[in-house]
NADH-ubiquinone oxidoreductase chain 4
Amino acid sequence: MLGVIIGSLFVSFSLLFIKGSRSWSLVSVSCILFSFVSSLFFSSGRVVLSFFYIDNVSYPLIVLSSIIIFLCIMASFNVVGSNTNINGFLLSILIIGLFLYFCFLVNTLVGYFIFFESSVIPLLVLIARWGSQKERIQASFYFVFYTLVGSFPLIISLFSLYFIMDTSFMSFGSLVQVPHQNYSFSLISIWWLFSVIGFLVKLPIYGFHLWLPKAHVEAPVAGSMLLAALLLKLGGYGLIRISGFITSTLGYYVSTFCFWGSLVTSIICLRQTDLKALIAYSSVGHMSLVAGGILLNTSWGVSGALMLMVAHGLISSCLFCLANLIYERSGSRTLKVTRGLKGLSVLMPIWWLLSCVFNLGLPPVPNFIGEIWVIISALSASVLYIVILGASLVYSSIYSLFIFQKTCTGFVPDFFLNISVFTPREHCLVILHLVPLILILGNPGICFC
């Protein structure tokens, strides 16, 4: 199975050496073929190699990665000008995809850490080289700084595991032995807290999120899609791998902070004037809810978090695509300017409405299923969680409807009257985001751990 991954990516890399615009189409076709191959042939519970393993947690995220990589290339046809390095842009996306596959396949904590940190470099290149504004350099600095600082607690945790386990081969399954070592409960709890902090910075949750809005706003559309749909999920994936092995009262305190952060960021969304910043803050709120569900350490909580990760990966990527379609035509992301789409297109308001409905979690969409599973897990821990979670979901619905109201209603600005029409490729791009979400409704059990 590893040959399928390497072979497909090798074909994609080789197509980059074809001159001219044909490389876009050929690489796109190669990526979509690989997405179908991964969904058909990957199955959970299969050992690929001694260091690689696929289970119920990694399988949906691998398929999600395959889909998003293709959609990133499809969405970027207008990002790279004719006088820039097209092959370098495509190569950066494919390298990120390669590291992401290995992150979700690797069976060791050290390997996961190496591949995750490696994926930061090509994403940094995307933001710094193909960002839209001069502030992209500052956004790149924030991104690297928070990533490196957030890695320090995880590095300390890895060194501690090396001395505890007396081996550098630390598979995720071997972590179950950590609580049974001859160390005090306080020391093990400190190790757990350091590990969790490292992953919470990478999600990120409220309080560790300052780098995310800046990176999203300045990144090209492919960078925003990769960051929201996949890079943030690596933090949740690592959290799932380590949270189930430690039973600690610290988990309830941290999950409470995460749920509270979800409420705060939902309120912050209502104060945003930049469309991409609003979508970025909504990602912080959703990831805070994911972290809280995982740290409750129940099957319902982890399954709900995984469902939210997959659903959010698709819908956040779709929202950033829609925001980019407006930005390419108006040159602005300000909500007071980007309005009146219902007077310009028949289909675009429909796509915005469906995307906002999926984002706010109306039944029976996958976001709703994931939120219900997390709420069930939270109420089993304490009924007081219903106050925070209820308010968070209400504000989440408000800002989702706020996005639709600002973009699609109102009069059409004068400079919007001469914009180009939306192309079939752009409509197809939105449809390919929404179809997998609809298909998940037929089998939501694929995200149940």
About this structure: The two ends are 23 Å apart (CA to CA). Residues 100 and 119 are 7 Å apart (CA to CA). The chain has one domain: 2-447. Residues 1-8, 13-22 have pLDDT under 50 and may be disordered.
